[in-house]
Every structure is written in structure tokens, then in C-alpha cells.
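Weekly structure sync, notes
Attendees: PL (lead), two postdocs, one rotation student
Agenda item 3: pending single-chain targets
PL asked that the sequence for the first pending target be pasted directly into the notes so everyone works from the same version. It is reproduced below exactly as submitted, 308 residues in total.
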Amino acid sequence: MTTIGSAIPGTGRRHRPVERMIELLLVVCALVSAVTTGLIIAVLSVETVHFFAADEVSVVDFLTGLEWNPLLGAEKHFGIWPLVCGTLLVTVVAMAIAIPFGLLTALYLSEYAAPNVRAILKPVLEVLAGVPTVVYGFFALTVITPILQKLYSGFEVYNVTSAGLAVGIMCLPIVCSISEDSFRAVPSRLREGAYGIGATRFDVSVKIVMPAALSGIVAASLLAIARAVGETMIVALAAGNLARLTLNPTGQAQTMTAYVVQIFLGDASNFGPEYYSSYAVAASLFVMTLILTLIGHRVRVRFREEYE
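Predicted structure, written out during the meeting:
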């Protein structure tokens, strides 16, 4: 059997160089991604080893210490847990907004919204994803914080709740978009079969569509969590720079990314342990996001549904 391309003399030979160029371009793009990731890991590893090799702080003190004070005072402390606590606290507040509201919005767009309504709401959500994070930071500082202070006078000017709410709004399109794609990927015959036995639209949405799209929901949630953990500008502007172990969302806290920003603003010498500690913090953050990525991959493989 001859194909259309082979039926035209010389067509395959003309296209062969173009296909090879495209293949070479794709290989180069893949290599650029791999090399970039490798260079990032190499830089973080070398500078982190340099930080611990200075004999001013041990790995045990860094991983188990409960006080982080590298810049002020005669005695410096490099226990990372206050920074981890601030990061996780902001992430929890953000996910309390992004995950439930994102899933509900995705479910509405997939199962309830009319096509013309979906055509309007989907681009609006995508616009939220394109807003610069520094704008979210100023929005948290100038809009969300005053509203919170009117509701409760105990909120400080820089506080975890304000930063977490802004990060949650930023992560909302991630959860919504990926979840909606997962919902719409569920075969329509499953819905039709449920409707055929008398199920309501709510029953179909909650008991058929959501369980079938569980892997996509988990992937969207973990991706949003990783995005919130690595957020920089919002927390640097709105959460404050006081590293402390606290569960109080009304006060300020410092995240891992905000500390890195603080160091590279020139508050520390380029040759001191506080400077190299920023690489150790960045390496810890890299490991956290890597673990989240691996968990997301395992969950997707474990709960992925295949339909024929």
C-alpha cells in the first residue's frame, strides 16, 4: 500500500531534511531543560556543602534547630524550622482557599455551566494566572490586610493570613484549570449510564465524575501546593521577615523564599555563613518541591483511570 506522500515523486526526500531539523530542535530543547536542571542542582549542592564545611553550623543543628537568627546578635542560629513553619503556614492558608474553591469552580464549569458562560469564565480565570506576583503582593498589603484589620484588630500589618489569601487566589486558576480538564476527560457514557438509572446531576458530579478524575484532582492540588511553597514576592511583601515558630496566622512570619530574597538584597556579606545559608535554604526548598512532585507522580500512576 502506498501513502499519499510516497505517491508524489520527491516529496519524501524534500521533507526529510526538514524533519531532521525539527527532530534536532526538539532534542536541543530537551537537553537545555536537562542541563539547566543539572546546573541548578550543582550550584545548590556546591554552595550548600561550602556552608556546612565552614564548621560554624552542623547539618544536625540546621535540620533540628528551632531558632533562625543569622543576621542579628552576637550568637547566630541556623535552625531551619522557623522558616519551614512560616512556609507551611502560608501554604495551608493558601490551599484552604485554592483547593475547595478551585474544585467547585471546575465542577461548575465542567458539569453545570452553559457553553457561553464557560467561554466567559474560563478566560477570566486564566487572566488571574497571568497577573504578576508582585501585584498580588501589593494587593495583599494594601487591600486584604486593611479588610482583615477591620474584621479583627489583632492582625498585624504584615501577617500570614493576608499573604496566604493572596497566594491562594494566585493558585486558584491552577487547581481549576487542571481539575476541569480532568472532569471533562471522564467519558460521557459514565454520565449517561448514571442518568439512565435515575441519578441527579449532583449525584453524577460527586459520585461519578469526581472519583473518576481523582488522579487529576490530586495532581492539581499537589502542583498548587508546590507553587505556593515556592512563591516569593507575595510572601516577601505581605508576610513579614520575622522567622519564628508559630501557628498564629494573625502575625508575621518569614518563609524560606523570603529569607533568600532578604539575603540577596545586600543585608549580608557575600563571604559570610549567612550568605551561604541562603543556598542551604534553597536546597531544602528544592528537596521539598521534589518530594511533592514524586508524590504527585506516584498518585497519578496509582489512581489513573484508563477508558477504552
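Discussion points:
- The CA atoms of residues 91 and 229 lie 6 Å apart.
- DSSP finds 13 helices and two strands in the chain.
Action: rotation student to compare against the earlier draft before next sync.
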